## 1
Amino acid sequence: MVKKSLLALAMGGLAIGMTEFSMMGVLEDFAKDLNISIPTAGNFISMYAMGVMVGAPTLIMATSKYSPKKVLIFFMLLFTIFNSLFVIAPSYNTLLIARFMSGLPHGAFFGVGSVVAAQLATKGKEAQAISIMFAGLTFANLVGVPLGTKLGQVFSWRLTFGIIASLGLITMLAISLWVPNLKNTNKGSLVEQLSFFKKWEAWVLIVMISIGTSGLFAWISYISPLMTNVADLPKTKIPIIMTLIGLGMFVGNFIGGKLADTMSPNKAAIISFASMAICLVIVYFTSHIQIMAYIMSFITGLIAFTIGSPIQMMLINNGKGSETLAAAAGQASFNIGNALGAFLGGIPIAMGLGFNSQLWVGFIMASVGSIIAAIFLQLKSKRV
């Protein structure tokens, strides 16, 4: 039976997953409402990712002396306030600022949450415990994002993000009731914790995650125009596509946790990135076939999210004494991938190469991620 404490973390993952991925589902409606192009609307995906990159290390460092439970509640308070600001922001510039701010607590929450989940886990099942927390994020893609996409299409994207803001309040309550007061594992001063970034492992992992995960975001950031313009699906079918992606992510998340605990996080990461690269090539050549668009949405979502738990465990294992900061750095890196994928994927689209041209960008980035993971494994094995 799943511990209530892990369910509380999963609820945070649900809220964060909805605010991150709902923008992709409502992208066309959002662009139309603001009277901007789809690639320009993609800036809001990149701006959120930039918020994560900035917020993950800074919020972790600012709260390193406090208990994990209080820190998690504080992060969800920020989440609620900033997403509420995004709902009421009146103009393009104020929306852009609010979107940046709403990304600030994202990586910090998952950074602290990953360490808390590992502490709560049975020995030898740390990656699977982390996968339970990330199950909330994948459940967001399974149920929350399709529902939010539908609400955005029928009513307004502002309603979607209003509901997301309310989830932050519910998560705060769940954490306060179910998460125990755990010992702060951060050792030494802030300067000593920052020594994690003096390790070569830290920077190889940051580069690996940033580049490798951008393959996912080059694909999913433009999933709506890919389906409507290439697969020729009506816009009303996008929620079904998002549900299939979410179902795939939900399943893949647990597979990734099992792989990381069974073979090793590093080997699991190599397999995950390589599989993602292959998958994106298949999507490119089959996306015009409607039945394959449905099938590959599920499969690509599954493969993409096998990477979550392995990379978190790689960071925690290589960041002894600075586990929280290391895990948060992973989330920052993941969202560098988000920004890179959305930005680089938008370039061939803006050049008029088609709404499936971004898949080749994704293929290259995921392939490079797999190569870096393999090099990292070789370097570590030589130093043992």
## 2
Amino acid sequence: MNFELTEEMKMLKEMAYRFAVSEIKPVSQECDEHEKYLPEIRQKAAQNGLVGAWIPEEYGGPGAGILGNAIITEEISKIDMGISLNIVASGFGCESILNFGTYEQKKTYLPPICAGEKVCAGAYTEPNAGTDVAGYKTRAVKDGRDYIINGNKMFITNGTVCDFMVAQCITHPEEKKHNSFSLIIVPADAKGITRNKIHGKMGIRASDTAEIAFEDVRVPQTNLVGKEGQGFRQLMHFFDITRVMVSGQALGISEACLDASIKYVKERTAFGAPLGAYQMTQMKLTEMAIRIEALRGLVYKAAWLIDQDRPDYTLAAMAKFYGGQTAVFCANYAVELHGGYGYIEEYPVQKWYRDAKILELYEGTKEAEIMTIGRALQARS
């Protein structure tokens, strides 16, 4: 059993971190304060092979797999999780096109993502249904060779900056809930679409989040991804993969919290000694480090297994659950170790504290992950 990364993965890891330090760090605070989305950073990242890393070379991607994508996510999330989301999630929704789409769809939509020319959004969550995927209400009704879509989506990543989106719609209302949905590719500039950016987020403020309304939006039936009535299962498969990306974000931000805390407690003195000399400080650093190492094992193994065509989606759910928990835990300790300085903008730990909480919410709440894991464990016996 070899726990070492390949030389190629080590180089990718180093390159991703260098890019984050040189390109993201100088603008991080400004983007956070002003909720600024910078497409030029995404485009530069694409030039360095950091966008759509999971997309195979035959469709214009770097072909680094899910593990490579997780490593990229980890490294750039150490600097700014909001901007990292703009980079690693610029193809958000395209996972379904790769896994279930036609050859023509893959050739049309995937290469521009990898080149940094276009952005995709996954239009899934609705105002009254988030984790309850079977509760979505958006409808797509056939009309000739087209679908006519009506409904509303909420908290959509890349919602106002995307060029197209993959939308979850009811196409067969007469069927049981899990058989009633389909995934449909929708151009963002289609007539009848209204997109509004959501302002005032607690964290990941540099990323774009929006509400989207569909009013008699007409798209051709050739935009269907896979087969009609399979949308729910396709979406579950999608989340099984993207949970690994989210756990990579959690790993990166947790490591950043630990590194910053170690640096601070070595420099800061109290009662005539460095903070790091006190047992309570050492305990907090130790707990953070242990959780991070455990999380790294979950993230890397879950990603590696997907790349080996031996996916363990229960393990991916574990990585997502433990990732959110670890990030919140480490961010909280980082603020405590920094004291009053951890509460002001001069130090980044206050931002990491705000960013970390979303990791327990999106891509399935921590409660949803518990249900997923619990059911899988009981099904084994």
## 3
Amino acid sequence: MDKKKKENITPFTPDQQALLEKYLVTGTADYSLSKFVPHPKGNLGTEKKDTSATGKHNAFLTGRITPLAPDYWHQDMDNDSPVNLTTPENFDYLYRSASRYAELMGIKLPFRYRKGGCPRLNITELYRVMEECVPECINLEKKDGRLHFCLFRHHDWPEPTLFWIPVDFTERLSASLKNIVREFIRLFVRHHRLYDITETFCYDFAIEELEDWGNRDSDASPKEVRANKRLADSYQSGKRMKALRRMSGKPFCKSLEEAVRNYRTKKEKELKLLELIEDGMALITPESPVLTGYQYDWAYEEECDFPPVGMESQVILVYSADDTLAECVKGYMNSDYQETYALTPVTYKLLTPETDSLFQMDDYPERLSRWLVCFTGYIDDNF
């Protein structure tokens, strides 16, 4: 990103930062994230550091290279057979891609093309040259049987933070305002293709914990055991299940813009909520990016003990952000945060010999996260 582009990404205001610190996923004493240590990304944000975040999937680049070093083999997902990626054809493709990008940068690629030799050594040397030439982070990625250079940069995104959008608070609103808020949330979830909490990877574990509460907590009272069993039933076949499913159904009003414009109120809390909704509507226009389009696992491993925490778990629709099931899900996610890293928005670009533009990134994730801090924080404080 050039300096002019960086200046367009404004930081959090003091008020937003205070909200952010308040709504970091700290959970309860049992579910604390106070010991969270971010995964060593190597290159974070908009600045490139000295160490490249190649990730273990490019491990053949990270060790000491010897003349007799083995080729890099990749497991083919179609026929389950190993495929050698360090071929002369892949080196040629990478070289032409690098040369094209250097041309776009207005520089001469400082690499001497030598025919023959070890493709792996050639690829490794070309990678090191590109790492020195480009201001972005760089990986090697496999796509369509070819190796590609992939340029990427991390957006400024609060981590670790769960932006869980609840619907239970709307039950305490007037009928007209309730429909407005629910319609906005429905459109927001649809635009960003968000999951609801029942679709997260640890939902089933949380349900099992609720149903087995008496055996898991010897100090639990019979009343508490029954309450958690009813809560599990509500998520599986009752009120909470129906409320979450309804959010993916038909509209709550014909025109959200018209409904917001025509709603009359003198209550300060409602006016502020409507203001936040109007700000959020500007983030989900037909031209607005989709959050999942920024998901890129810069440190992907084919076989890993703990997969990263994806954005599909960090920004989701929930019935309640603080009922016992939600706390259970947070607990499982906290455990994962201790073992792995979170995927946060990344802009990335695969290079080809036909690439016709330089790497660019916008500030949409930054604007979205600032709005999410304000929206979820305001709901929690006022409803």
## 4
Amino acid sequence: MTTTNASTTAGGTSTGAAGAAPAGTTGADRVPTIVLGGTGYVAGELLRLIAGHPKLALRAIVSDSKPGERVAAAFPHLAAVYPDATFVSVDDAIALASSLPTSAVLSAAPHGVSAALIDRLLTQANAAGGNPRVVDISADYRFADADAYAKVYKHAHGAPARLKDFTCAVPEHLGSLPTPHVAHPGCFATAMLLAIVPLLKLGLVEPELYVSGVTGSTGSGRTPTAGTHHPQRHSDLYSYNALGHRHAPEVVAVAKAVTGVEAALNFVPHSGPFARGIHATTQARLVKTATGADVIAALREFYAGQPFVRVLDEAPRLKDVVSSNYAHLSATANGRTLAVMSVVDNLTKGAAGGAVQWMNRVFGWDPTLGLTAPAPGWT
């Protein structure tokens, strides 16, 4: 199915189980919006972005573990815009989606849960005449093949028949969307794909890639473990899942779907002593000798007209993108050895912001709606 510019419908006032919507987010030109998996860091970032979005009207925030509890208790920094909103159950959200002609559904539900939850919502809403449009931020719809998913995540896919309805890509890498719904790549995958896809598509490098990446603690989720919470990570730096991270096969699959080139990816991720952001360095062998300036020029041409990707002459810095939907890239070369550096915010461009960017496209809106705020710069 080809995505069309779906018409918007009344968002209405968020009442009942979902509580009151933030001031200014209701109106006849806004699309009712449902957030699944509503208590984690990515969900909190989605809520922050929706609060300032001119076309999305929050109607339900799902948490089966906290139905009826105040959203502001889970996200105190959002209390000013969601003073009365409460979490709702899955059943309530599905009933809402089934009652609406169209809706925007953003899923931050966990891997292994999101697939079946989305399938149930779509099945019931479609049967009732509704037309929800989904962007899934979990890994559940990133692979086109259920066996490939099971090989990486070590459990069966929750809704294999639904995979055909989803496309996975970074928004900047796909000109048109061939399916009604989208799977957003992972945060590390986003940072890597922004560098890797142009290199492969332009034929600049041999398809043997080496990536070293560093991520902030929010990438590990909200529940602390011995290796991820602040006392362990503070003033420390260490690798984990070296050459075995689950985003590596995802990057290979997504890059091949976009470029037609199947690359070998050797990825070593690291845990960094900061909360937000990803810095990834991709190294490869150039097909022919080039300068860093040559590669920078090629990257700029590739991303021309893409407002969220900036290609710099100097090395990119995390603080210039943290809490924003922007990605910064740069490159350097020595003979046929190439290094491309990319930085993104893992919660925004790598997850919630990229998902909202996709939702803008799904509904035929300007892809920058609600996303143009720059990074704070001092965090």
